[in-house]
Amino acid sequence: MSIQTRIVDYSQDGTTYEGYLAWDDAAAGPRPVVLVSHAWGGAGDFEHARARDLAKLGYTGFSLDLYGKGVRGSNPDENAALMQPFLDDRELLQKRMRLAVEVASGQDGADASRVAAIGYCFGGLCVLDLARIGADLRGVVSFHGLFHPPGNTDGNRIAAKVLALHGWDDPMATPENVVALAAELTGGGADWQIHGYGHALHAFTNPEANDPDHGVAYDSAADRRSWQAMVNFLEEIF
Question: Is pTM, for the whole model, over 0.90?
Answer without folding.
Answer: yes
